[in-house]
Design brief:
The chain is mainly α. The protein is built from seven helices and six strands. Strands 1-2 form a two-stranded antiparallel ribbon. Strands 3-4 form a two-stranded antiparallel ribbon. A hairpin with a 4-residue loop joins strand 1 and strand 2. Helix 3 runs antiparallel to helix 4 (73-86) and helix 3 runs parallel beside helix 5. Residues 201-213 have a biased composition (Low complexity). Residues 185-213 are annotated as: Disordered. InterPro entries: ABATE, ABATE_dom_sf, Znf_CGNR. Residues 185-198 have a biased composition (Basic and acidic residues).
C-alpha cells in the first residue's frame, strides 16, 4: 500500500476523542485493534499499556491538525517532525499480497513493524502517513471540523481546498444552525408602528408634489 494511505491512521486515532463533548471511545483493546485493522500483526501485540501510549499520541496528533486549521504551518510541521524523530519508521518494499494480471507482484512501499510496542507502531505509522500527505498536498489539507461541538480531524481532498467539515452530516447541521440564527436575528428586529409607516409614506408623497407658484 502507498505511504499516503497511512495518513488515515492519524485521523482515526484523533477522532476517538470528542474533547468538547467529553467523550473518549479508546477504552478497550478491541477498539484499538479496530484502529489498526484486524489483519495487522501489531494489533495482535496490543496490551493495556498501549492504550495509554496511543492516547498520548492522540493529543499530539490533534495539536498538529489544530495548528494547521489555524493557519500556523510552521508549528504544525514542527510538531509533526517531533513525532517523526521520536517514532522513526522502517520502510520496505512489499508486494506479495498484490498481483497483476500476469501474477507478478505489484511492488509498493510498506512500513515495517519493528517498534518496541504496538502503541509505538501505530504512532510511527500515523505520523509517517500524515507527513507524506502533508508534503504532497499541503498543510492546509489538514483540518478540524468547524461544526461545533464536533472538532473532528479530517483530510481535505476537495479540488478547491474548500472543505470545512468532517462529514456531510456536520456540514448540514452547521448550515441549518446558521439559517436558524439568521431567522432569529430577523425576527428580533422591531417592526415599525403602522401609524409611523403611514406618516412616512405621506411625507414622501408631499415632498414629491409640485410647489405652488
Amino acid at each position: 500500500m502507498e505511504l499516503a494511505y497511512y495518513s488515515d491512521f492519524a485521523v482515526r486515532l484523533v477522532n476517538t476523542e470528542q474533547p468538547a463533548r467529553g467523550t473518549d471511545t479508546l477504552t478497550s483493546l478491541d477498539v484499538a485493534r479496530e484502529l489498526f485493522g484486524t489483519a495487522s500483526q501489531a494489533a495482535r501485540r496490543l496490551v493495556d499499556g498501549d492504550l495509554t501510549r496511543m492516547r498520548s499520541a492522540r493529543v499530539r496528533l490533534r495539536a498538529i491538525f489544530e495548528a494547521a486549521s489555524e493557519g500556523d504551518e510552521v508549528r504544525a510541521v514542527d510538531l509533526l517532525n517531533a513525532l517523526l524523530m521520536e517514532f522513526p519508521v522502517s520502510p520496505q518494499i512489499s508486494g506479495h499480497e498484490y498481483r497483476d494480471e500476469d501474477g507478478r507482484p505489484k511492488w509498493h512501499m510498506h512500513i515495517a513493524d519493528h517498534a518496541a510496542n504496538a502503541g509505538a507502531v501505530y504512532t510511527a505509522t500515523a505520523s509517517m502517513g500524515l507527513a507524506v500527505h502533508l508534503t504532497e498536498y499541503g498543510v492546509d489539507r489538514l483540518g478540524i471540523c468547524q461544526a461545533a461541538p464536533c472538532r473532528n480531524a479530517y483530510l481535505d481532498t476537495s479540488t478547491n481546498r474548500s472543505r470545512r467539515y468532517c462529514s456531510d452530516r456536520c456540514a448540514t447541521r452547521a448550515n441549518v444552525a446558521a439559517y436558524r440564527a439568521r431567522k432569529r436575528l430577523e425576527n428580533a428586529r422591531p417592526a415599525e408602528p403602522a401609524d409611523r409607516i403611514g406618516r412616512t409614506a405621506a411625507a414622501a408623497q408631499d415632498s414629491s408634489a409640485p410647489a405652488d407658484r
